[in-house]
Amino acid sequence: MFKTIEWKNNSVVMIDQRLLPSQEVYRIYTDFLDVAEAIRKMVVRGAPAIGVAAAMGIALGASDINAKDRRGFVKEFKKICKIMAATRPTAVNLFWAIERMKRVAKENPKLGVDELKQVLIQEAKKIHKEDIEINKQMGRYGSSLIKNKAAILTHCNAGALATAGYGTALGVIRAAVEQGKKIKVFADETRPFLQGSRLTAWELMKDGIDTTLITDNMAGYMMKKGLIDVVIVGADRIASNGDTANKIGSYSVAVLAKEHKIPFYVAAPISTIDLNIKHGDKIPIEERDTKEVTHIKDIAIAPAGIKVRNPAFDVTPNRLITAIITERGIARKSFEKSLKRMVKAGNIS
After folding, report:
1. Which of 188, 236, 243, 314 is catalytic?
2. Catalytic residue flag (residue 236)
3. pLDDT band at residue 1, thresholds of 50, 70 and 90?
4. Torsions phi, psi for 208 (to 5 deg)
5. Residues 37-45, mean pLDDT to the nearest whole number
């Protein structure tokens, strides 16, 4: 089984997702600046995986700080956190992980520099381990929504590659399969970065799950033909009212699902919920390199000089979302109440 990311021999090891499915290459990082660049360049992607990578990158950078006293250490540590925070703006898990690492440093004021370095490494490892368990718990909740012989449409990649392991949206699918349910998956290719065709299809085929790849503009046709029973996607940030930022094209799928009376589920950990943002219009949307649209790898598919827009995410309004699946249960409307209760109080279902 492949590993998305791990801490190994005082380095961060990540599978290079840009090369999948043709090559399974693992990159070894010994400098936090290289981890930050790996996040920025999408060697690693998917909100939970970005959070884990950020925590490990911070731990890696902290371990290399050459400071004799705590004051000097904290000054350099803050610089590392700031660099990591500038990598990608939409995925709130990135900032959640950074704040968690900052909190660990703050809550251990009596530790010496060397001891604090070890505590930060252990915290990054803990975030990694917790993410896998969170995904499995999310899968157990979400699988209750999936009927036997269901045909599921998913957009982008919200699987083991987008997390520390197991997956969010694909974790729900995996859990349903593990329960003995016969599941079929339709995977949108997910232009322009093709996470569906390159990553989701690759993951599910490795698991032996019945998977059919379609282009993004085939989703409506499949729904009209009665071939789709349910849609499950992941999320990069969820506003307090349930508006959800996910990979560009998710909004279009949600509109189609509403038209065809198909449930549209979002699967995401509690760390993806941002109660500080009231609605989706406030979620920052990353605009990426235009070459992702005009080229596939290094092959041009558009005329040179054409004007291009490349927003990496869109926002699905809460009215189009049937339910939000988390590790603490299933949030339903009104999301503003259920999400707040879930984040602050604990389990609901």
Report:
1. 236
2. yes
3. confident
4. 70, 25
5. 97
